[in-house]
Structures are given as C-alpha cells and as structure tokens.
TrEMBL record:
Residues 55-354 form the ABC transporter substrate-binding protein PnrA-like domain. The keyword Membrane applies. InterPro entries: BMP_lipoprotein, PnrA-like. It comes from Sinosporangium album. This is Basic membrane protein A. Pfam families: Bmp. It comes from the Bacteria. PROSITE patterns: PROKAR_LIPOPROTEIN. It is found in: Cell membrane. Keywords: Cell membrane, Lipoprotein, Membrane, Signal. Residues 1-24 form the signal peptide. PANTHER family: ABC TRANSPORTER GUANOSINE-BINDING PROTEIN NUPN, TRANSCRIPTIONAL ACTIVATOR PROTEIN MED. Residues 75-99 are annotated as: Disordered. The keyword Membrane applies.
Amino acid sequence: MLRNRVGRMAAGVLAGAMVTVGVAACGGDSTTATPAEGGSSAAAPTGAKVGLAYDIGGRGDQSFNDSAAAGLDKAKSELKLPDPRELTASPGETEAQKEERLRLLATSGYNPVVAVGFAYSGPVKKVAAEFPDVKFAIVDDAAATGPNISNLVFAEHEGSFLVGAAAALKSTKNNVGFVGGVQVPLIQKFEAGFAAGAKAVNKDITIQSKYLSQPPEFTGFNDPAKGKTVAEGMIDAGADVVYHAAGGSGSGVFEAAKAGKAQAIGVDADQALTADAAVKDVVMTSMLKKLDVAVYDFLKSFAAGTVKPGTTVYDLKVAGVDYSVTGGKVDDIKDKLEEYKQKIVSGEIKVPETTS
C-alpha cells in the first residue's frame, strides 16, 4: 500500500521540481553553532545519498532555497557525496504532499534527508518517526522533534537589527519600510529586529510594515507583483529604504525601489549579487542568513558520524547571520554597524524577537 502511494506521488513531486519562483521563508538540547571553515577531506559513509526537499521555488529563487543549495553543492564537492536528489514543493500543496515527498526520498534510500523551510515541520515529524534509521534535518523549525531530527535555526532578529540600523542611518526622509511575505512568527522576527535597529538609530523614525498574505495562505512568498505594489505604496508614503523578508516576492520590491528612486535591502543571500541585473543596483545591503553554512555543517557531521538531534542556533556570534557589503553602499556606516554588532554579541543589546 505504501509503495503504491509513493509511486503515485513520484510524478507529482517531480513536476513540483520544475517550479522556478518563490520561497518559504522564515526536541533535544539547543546549542549554538560553530560554522565550519575551510574544506574537508572526509568522505561520506559508504552508500550515503542526500535527499533535499526545497520549499516553493527551489534552485533559482535568488534567496532562501539558493542558499541551501549552495551548502549542498559544497558538501557534494568536499565530502565526495554521490549525486543528491533534489525535489521542490509546488504552490498550494498540502502537508500530505510534503509528507509524500519526504517519504519518497526515504523509501528510495536517501539518507540523510534535508527539508528546507518551516512548512515541512509537521511532515518531517511524521515521516521521521516512520524511518528511525534515516537522519532528517529541517531548516527554520524547532518544533519538529525526534531522536533522528536535527533542527537548524537562525537568529534572524539579530541580523535584521543591523540592516534596520543601516536603513535608518541611510534614510534622508526618516521613513523606512518592511515587507513580509507571510505573517507568521518566523517572519515577525525579521520585522521585530529591523524595527529595533531603526529605532536604535532614530527613535522617531517612521516604520511602515505590511505582509503580503496571512496563513494558511502562503502566496506572499511567491508574488512579485504584490511585493511591487506594496513597496510602491510605501515609497509613495515617504519611505526611501525598504527591507523585504518575502522570498521570491522580493524581486517586486526591488523593481519598486528602482522605479521610485529608493533603496532596498535584500534577505537571506547577498542579493546585490543574486538579484536580476536590472535591479541589483538598488540593493543597499542584505541580511545574510547562512543556510549554506547550516546545511554544509549538517552534512559534514553526517559524514563524520556525529549528527545530533535537537536545535542548533546560527546567530550573530558565530556569523550565522550578518549583513552584506557588496557594492560599498554601507562602507560609510560600517563602523557604526560593527559597533552595534559587538553590542549584540556581548549581550549589551538584547534584540527583541516579537513586535509586541
């Protein structure tokens, strides 16, 4: 019965791998990561095959999923992994479909299996229990717990504080904007940190904030047109710097910034490098979220036989989050940003994780 069900799902999952736009977004002991440095001569255990399940967009989203893919590519090269199996979620799919994608990888002999995005939380917890000998990792979720589940999470609020400070330092109108993909707690961490950083620079600054969709509707991560419309509204209302945490919708934010002669702040990857050529010049900085480091670390630990279940936090202290400097647009304020960074690392500044 299970074999038949998995077989029926295979075609649908592979079709989902053709999606090219969008992004998600945002048990055991909790530890702080020490990101891996340099290469490794270690080889994966005999027979090891990596299965990776992306959220909406997969490779090519210029942000969240691409960062995870970079970690996979590094691991494949440096750890001598055989070709991985990469599958991608489709817009509007159910949790049952995500379960089948993970189940397909596990029944096909892939071990470990990496799920990219908090939308896999329930499916990972369920499928991992069915395959206790398979190691699972999930990015951006600490709720799915089990003896064979590793949770790779980030201090998005800390990195967002730094780009919020950058926005306020660069704004000439004392008015900045935040565009969130979906109003869920993970994305609210980005908003909370951004607002705190901007207020640290100028307590009287105006901060406009809007989300593109509300759960259970997740199209806000895959709607560039709506991202553009919302950002245009913010710019028309006086914002001259707009930060997005909206996955594939961020390309629309960049288009609005370009047309409105404003500046934009990217997310997850260094979007001054990854955004389309026509708009990348408006990217002042990006909040870097090192999914590549987290995915590589997990796969390296699997190769070494040292995978541990539970939560690993990639925060500012271990450079799990940061801000980009491509293009030199924040060079004149870098000293101030580094000062804020050190205060966060030392604990002098406690960055809020919620907007309340």
